[in-house]
Amino acid sequence: MVHYEINEVRAKPEEIDLFFRIQDNLRFSVGQSVFTEIQKKELINKVYSLHNKEELKHLQKEWLRTSLLTTQPLDSIRRYFGEHIAIYFAFLEFYTEMLVPATLLAIIMFFVSFFSLESLQGIGAFAAFNMLWATFFFVRWKRYCATLAYRWGTLLKPNEQLELPRPQFRGKMGKNPVTGFPEPVYSERKRNLWITFVSYPSVALCLLTSAYVLNKFMTERNKINNTAEQVAVQASGFSSFLWVYIPSVLYTVWTKCFSLISGRTAVWLTDRENHRLQSHYEFHLIWKLLLFNFVNSFSSLFYIAFWVQDLVLLRTHLAAQLITNQMTDQIPEIILPWIKVRLDQWIFKQQAKTLEAHADEYDDPNFMVLKEQATIEGQLPEYPFGHCFLFSSAFPVAPLFALLNNLIEIRGDGFKVSNVIRRPFAQPANGIGPWQVAFELMGFVAVVTNLALIFVSPETKNSFPATWTNGQLILAFVVLEHILVIAKLSLSSVVSYIPQNIATEIARNEHEMKLAVREERARESRKEIEQRKMSRPVSGWNPKAPQGQTRPGTMPLENAAQRKRDTAKG
User: Fold this and answer.
1) How far apart are alpha carbons 316 and 551 in whole angstroms?
2) What is the rounded distance in angstroms from the CA atom of residue 29 to the CA atom of residue 16?
3) 539, 562, 537, 557: which is closest to 547 by C-alpha?
4) 120-152 and 74-81 helices cross at what angle (nearest 10)?
5) Are 152 and 429 contacting, i.e. CB atoms less than 8 angstroms apart?
6) Count of CB atoms within 10 A of residue 229's CB?
7) In the beta sheet, which residues pair with residue 173?
8) Three-state SS at 49
9) For the segment 283-299, what is each residue's pLDDT rounded down to a tens digit?
10) How many CB atoms lie within 10 A of CB 397?
11) Among candidates 329, 302, 470, which has minimal Cα distance to 390?
């Protein structure tokens, strides 16, 4: 709450000159976040939430020091880190559990292909299972996520017009059209112009660069393959292994480096777009990152599968890319930050010794607290998905590697968020945001890619009549693809994304809220009626007159009653 309130302090017109007199290089525009600008000028180094060592120790004992197969204490993670982090680990755990049946079937398919009993029917059945698995996975995850969000009180999001703007949001000081509160206002036209003429061309340039490098890679790969065929007779088993896999490994390493550059570009572009809400900012940033990562990771696979149409090369390249990605992800995400944390702790210990030796000259009461805190800033979590099912018919054992990677990543990310990075500020969340839409789109792409892989294989062409032309084969592919997509959509629409018990609880809460409002209105109406009765003058009664007397112009109540009886007799 303190961090939220500090970020909402914005410069007013009468304060601009005051800030400039305090610091020469400190200039503000009206409505700009004061705290954010002070951080940019490095007058304040960092602001972050401190770890509570006692609570963190208890959480680590309950979470990280248990078996890899033990379920995570999601409620405890949510209480300490917030819903944003808890939803991420809930997704990893749910994804890992759902990978178990896919892994069992993948192992069976691996042994089938190992004994040369692989058939077109088996590959088709495995691809159909992956399509059904992906659909069932997304439906179940939405229901599970809705259950968690309802339990944590974040299922129903407030209206966007009622949300306060981001601290980094810039604009002229104006008023919110709904609340009337003062807040910065920025032209939507300026944002759209920046997105159209800067963001889109920059993203396209990055994608073209990736395509250019892919073309160079495939050219060199063909040269290496020709050389490998010439020396295949003299080469040993290990040498032939290097000739086959090393180019794919080098290309994967390059894509990781290019992803870092494109990621920084995405952050810079999204910052310049100046989005009002944090949810809009994350939406545009994540979509850029997803587009970059998708092209960097899968463009070579699509090229090999459908342009070169070499399924053996596709399998080796996919295996090398998947395993290399999993290995290289652990180095920058866990190992290097862990080394940096240990180095920072050693430096702090040396500074503590110096501080104790000169305690009379320098005294910082926060030093002993800060020295135990992590010094690395956290980043938005990235949700792993894609390699397992986009080309599952070419590399059926991919779910096994994903399962092993997830078992390690759950504990690795838990260690990182607890010991390596600074404690993030809690953020409310009711889902995984744009990642959900991206994964669902990837599920539809997986249907098309796996079906296309089956159609381009020689076995499929031989199974159709020899009189069929390529046009007829394409038509058969389109018809079957539409049938599978319709089946996928039908399966998704049958099951509700919100469980029935949660929907019943929401309806009951709304009903109780309406009853409470109705009772409150009835209570206020009765109170108003009573007040009106008390304020109405009564004929013949004067509370201030002595007993037996009335105000001028009135008569006692008994005389008034006698007059009514006399009138009635007359």
Assistant:
1) 108
2) 7
3) 557
4) 60
5) no
6) 10
7) 184
8) strand
9) 898 889 888 888 888 88
10) 19
11) 302
Between CA 289 and CA 122 the distance in angstroms is: 35
Query: ∠ CA(551), CA(556), CA(559), 5° rounding?
Result: 140
Instruction: Please name the residue ranges forming H helices in 116-199.
Output: 120-152, 188-194
Q: What is the pTM of this model?
A: 0.77
Whether residue 160 contacts residue 276, with contact meaning beta carbons closer than 8 Å, is answered with: no
DSSP 33: B
Determine the Cα–Cα distance for residues 446 and 450; give it in Å rounded to an integer: 6
pLDDT digits (tens, 9 = 90+) for 338-350: 677 677 767 777 7
- Whose tokens are 């070169």? That residue is 308
CB 144 within 8 A of CB 90: yes
CA 189 – CA 456 distance, rounded (Å)? 47
Helix (H) or strand (E) holding 182: strand 182-185
Terminal Cα distance for the chain, rounded: 80
Q: How far apart are CA 283 and CA 436, in angstroms?
A: 11
Give me 336's structure tokens: 């290097």
Integer Cα distance of 468 and 206 in angstroms: 41
Residue 392: name the closest of 467, 460, 466, 318 by CA. 318
Q: What is the number of other CB atoms lying within 10 angstroms of the CB of residue 244? A: 18
